[in-house]
Amino acid sequence: MTEPGPVLAGPGLPAAQSAALPAALLMPGQGSQYPGMGTGLYRDLPAFATIIDAVFQVMGVAGDELRHDWLAADGGPDGDTEPLLPLNHVSRSQSLLFAIDYALGRLLVDLGLGPAVMLGHSVGELAAATLAGVFDLDVAVRFLLRRADHLAGAPAGGMMAVAACAADVRPHLRPGTDIGAVNAPRQTIIAGTGAALRATAAALTQAGFTCAPVPSLTPFHSAVLEPVVEVLRGQLTGEPLRAPAIAIVSGYTTHLLTAAQATDPMYWAHHDVDPVLYWPALESLLASGSHLLIECGPGQGLTTLARRHPDVRSRRSQVLSLLGSPGQGPDGEADRFAAAVTGLGLSVPMTPATAVPSARTAATAAAAAVLATGAARSDRVAF
Amino acid sequence: MRQITLRELQDVIRECAGEDESAQSLVDAANEPFDQLGYDSLALLETQARVRRDYGVDFSEADLSDIATPQEFLDFVNNLLMAAA
User: Fold this and answer.
1) Alpha-carbon torsion A213, A214, A218, A221, what sign?
2) Beta bridge partners of residue A193, listed in sequence order
3) Which of left, alpha, beta for A6 (phi over 0: left; psi -120 to 50: alpha)?
4) What is the reported pLDDT for A382?
């Protein structure tokens, strides 16, 4: 286990960041997940563990199982390293990305950061909207869990990244596939059912385009998922939805999310069949002014792409990763996070390991106990 | 014997990433990790495909995953070119 770092600044938290650029939180979605993501921060930073445990708690039994599988990749609770479901399963990747994106954003805000704007990729937009108060946490979590249930029963499929612009990809799409995302000028994601996706990838490869699979067992953002739209709309109807208290650039319209859209269940229900327009949305965000783009989630996929934007190339805008790259692993996450937020003029309250039981030990012991006994919840996770 | 230069690699990778001349010059950043330069695995796969085609060198995806910087990319490809000469 990594020794938690020392307290990095004096008592109390600064009221505001010192960085000159307005902060934009970029929240990643499907494809950014990797085994062990965020588990080092969970282990070493109690403030993060408290927030994400609250998310798991709202998820109930599903949250206990999710945490079990999440931590299994990092040695596991009580050495249990066998996940119940693979990470790329919809009920794992989507919920974990949501939980980590949201918890990191919540933590930054708690530490005193005032984000000027947020942009979420796919499920990242749901996390951003929750942080912005559009959804209460329990409403967002219920929506996410219900959606995962329905998507798990949807036709099997996946996603593929193509090194080409959408216009070049479109003529090669086979029935059953769609443009799922526009990530960069020459990075388009296609989504669809297994056989159709393979046929499309073969046609694209034949035409000289480079393709690479995106880790997903579900064809997100394709017409294949049309049957879930009405179910999800019904799920949100009658729930309290609010205008965002923090500006959000919609990954679907590429403009600021309006109050009317944010409070319309159909806007959210339609995400699974509409393409994510990450790059156009990023262009829209940066056209409004230079920003410090912060990867508020696992990995650094969104900021790596953002580095290609002329505003970042010219250093008018800057990028910042909170957790580092997947290859760096969980062990140094807390140090990387501390370095990142110190650069923002904030300080991280690192609790010495001797003063407080390790977040990981306490929480995972509780989770393991719940799983072992089949008890319904692990409400009392003490730190 | 043909070798690939940093400037040639820069032109290929910019084209693969869909960038114009505003893109960062690799000449000043030969030892920066690719992800810090804005190039993800897909851009590198595409670059590999172009270099394979244009320079007639063959190397695997596994080889590519061990290459972290433009300089390492150049060294790897130029070694292959030299061995083939």
Assistant:
1) negative
2) A157
3) beta
4) 25
In sequence order, which residues have a C-beta less than 8 Å from that of residue A4 and are 6 or more positions away? Answer: A44, A45, A334, A350, A351, A352, A353
| Nearest CB partner across the interface for B45, out of A163, A301, A325 | A163
Residues A26, A296 contacting (CB under 8 angstroms): yes
Q: What is the mean pLDDT of residues A254-262?
A: 98
Fold of A16-154+221-379: Malonyl-Coenzyme A Acyl Carrier Protein; domain 2 (3.40.366)
DSSP for A44-104? H-HHHHHHHHHHHHHTTHHHHHHHHHHHHTTT-GGG----SS-TTSHHHHHHHHHHHHHHH
- Asked if pLDDT for residue A16 goes beyond 80, the answer is no
Chain A with chain B: Cβ pairs closer than 8 A: 53
Give the nearest chain B residue to A161 (CA atoms).
B42
Which H or E element spans position A190?
A: strand A187-193
Interface test with A, best of B12, B28, B35 (most A CBs within 10 A): B35
% of chain A with per-residue pLDDT over 90: 72
- Enumerate the domain spans of chain A: 16-154+221-379, 157-216
Mean pLDDT of B73-81: 95
- For residues A58-69, average pLDDT: 94
Chain A interface residues (partner B, CB cutoff 8 A)? 161, 163, 165, 184-187, 210, 212, 300-301, 304-308, 310, 312-314, 325
Question: Above 60 in pLDDT, residue A9?
Answer: no
E strand or H helix at A283: helix A278-287
Question: Hey, is A359 helix, strand or coil?
Answer: helix
> Does the domain made of A157-216 have the CATH classification 3.40.190.10?
no
Do the chains contact at A184 and B45, CB–CB below 8 Å? no
pLDDT digits (tens, 9 = 90+) for A141-179: 999 999 988 888 888 899 999 999 999 999 999 999 999
**Cα dihedral across residues B30, A304, A323, A1: positive or negative:** negative
Query: How far apart are the C-alpha atoms of A155 and A223, rounded to whole Å?
Result: 11
The domains located in chain B, with CATH, are: 6-84 (1.10.1200.10)
Residues of B whose CB is below 8 A from A181? none
pLDDT at residue A376, rounded to an integer: 31
Q: Point out the residue among B16, B36, B45 whose CB comes nearest to the CB of A212.
A: B45
Report pLDDT digits (tens) over A316-361. 999 999 999 998 999 999 999 999 999 999 988 765 443 344 444 4
B43 Cβ under 8 Å from any chain A Cβ? yes
Q: How far is A257 from chain B (nearest CA, A)?
A: 27
CA distance A116 to chain B (A): 24
Q: What are phi and psi of A189, to 5 degrees?
A: -105, 130
